[in-house]
Amino acid sequence: MTLRTLTLTWPRLPVRLGVLPWRRILHAAAWGAPALALTTAALLGTGFRYETWDGVAVASATPADPAAPAAAKRDLARLERTLASRAPRGRYIVIDRTNNRLYLREGDRVLLEAACSTGSGVVLRDLGLDRSWTFDTPRGEFRVLRKMRGPVWRKPDWAFVEEGKAGPATPDDRFEYGALGDYALDFGNGYMIHGTLYERLLGRSVTHGCIRLGRDDLARVFSAAPLGTRIFVF
Amino acid sequence: MLALGLLAVAAATTPPPDDPARIERRRAVLAREVDLASTGEPYLLLDPASRTLALYRRGVVLRSWSYLRADVGRPRVAFFRRAAPEPWTGRIWSDGELEPSRVARHVEVRVDTAAPDARPAEEVVPGTPEETYPAPDRFFLRFGEPFALEVRAVAPGREAVPDDRWDPLALRPREARGTRLRLWMPADEAGALYRALPDGIPLLVLEP
């Protein structure tokens, strides 16, 4: 059996190789193979070529104007003063919400880095009274407005809803002692930095929006951050 | 003689601090830094001198991440370089978007306090930050068409940064004239950066 008489029976219809346009196929292959090779090479040569960057300004966006160096120097000093004036003086607190870390900083120095807990992002819906709460820690810039020793927690409505109740049975039910730890730093709208009974959960987003700290870290932040200390939450 | 020769070479390669061009560049970059600090919103500064990428707000550091090595990537098409890239140092790149994006999950808990058999809400204990927002080994912060910051994690226990110079077929049509600045970071730093980056953040690459 020669190639010409070979009959292919797959898929269904028999195809006799002898009737295929061999000349055209060979012609196409002669042109197609180099084109395919060139295309492949071009694709392989398309991408990003990396070189180590040592910080030297490449193709700077700020062309030099050497016309007035003295004026530029004065302007430089003025800008440095302006930038310094934008920054808060003294210590400040930084909260990294997604990583659940708290930093107490002063300029470039980190005075304390601690695991904390921030808002869980849980949405609580009370189907009975058609109300809901989202437990997020707000981003932004705040200040320590109030400092409390032995804080007492005045439970909001959501705390009762979580317990399956519509509200407190008696006014005294609103108050819980010891739940917030030894200290609290209030930064407005009901949000505080405070202690916790659940230190094993530090580092996880479990709160209703407040920031929980471990006992020792809380004591350090409380003593180091006076009223008015800025709190940056990101 | 040798010392004098070395001093002469150093003097020839390092621009003097009073170099007018250098002062002018410093002034222009500082003006942009003041602009960013005045917005009251967070922004990123990349400082090649200290090898850090830092998150700022109002001129103060919120958090910083150190990198091991920086590479600049330029596109090549069929092995040929494209035209000269746009200037990318000393200018503000706006609206940085993470790729892949970080998805915040909100769990909904329902309680019917009006029901006679109302039960307390189920306690939800979320995972650690690493579990909640797993960070990829490679991610981008893209600033529109021409510029992207690429972060690569160096696996723990690995001593040297991989000498990975070529990223084939990674060119998107919109990146054809772009530049990538690739930062190699320890895996834990890269992961923390991925989790912390706010949406739409601007970046300023400082000039040394």
Key features of this structure:
heterodimer; A: 234 residues; alpha+beta; nine-stranded mixed sheet; two-stranded antiparallel sheet; 16 strands; 29% strand; B: 208 residues; ten-stranded mixed sheet; 12 strands; 22% helix; 34% strand
How would you portray this structure in words?
The complex is a heterodimer of chains A (234) and B (208). Chain A is α+β, with helices and mostly antiparallel strands. Chain A contains 4 helices and 16 strands. In chain A, strands 9-16-4-5-6-15-14-13-10 form a 9-stranded mixed β-sheet, with helices on one face. In chain A, strands 1-2 form a two-stranded antiparallel sheet. The termini of chain A are far apart. The mean pLDDT of chain A is 88. Chain B has 208 residues and is α+β, with helices and mostly antiparallel strands. Chain B is 22% helix and 34% strand. Chain B has a 10-stranded mixed β-sheet with strand order 3-2-1-12-6-8-9-11-4-5. Classes of the chains: A alpha+beta (234), B alpha+beta (208). The interface between A and B is large, with 75 and 92 residues.
- Distinct helical segment count of chain A: 4
Secondary structure category of chain B: alpha+beta
Ranges of chain B where pLDDT stays below 50 over 5 or more residues in a row are: none
Gross morphology of chain B is: globular
Mean pLDDT of chain B: 87
Q: How many strand elements of chain B?
A: 12
H and E order of chain A: EEHEHEEEEEEEEHEEEEHE
Instruction: Give the SSE order of chain B as H and E letters.
Output: HHEEEEEEEHEEEEHE
The largest sheet of chain B, given as strand count, sense and whether it forms a barrel, is: 10 strands, mixed
Taking all residues together, what is the mean pLDDT of chain A? 88
Biggest interface and residues each: A-B, 75 and 92 residues
How are the strands of the largest sheet of chain A arranged?
9-16-4-5-6-15-14-13-10
- What ranges of chain A have pLDDT less than 50 throughout 5 or more consecutive residues? none
DSSP strand tally of chain A:
16
**Euclidean distance between termini CA atoms of chain A:** 79 Å
Shape of chain A: flat
- Roughly how many Å is the radius of gyration of chain A? 35 Å
The structural class of chain A is alpha+beta
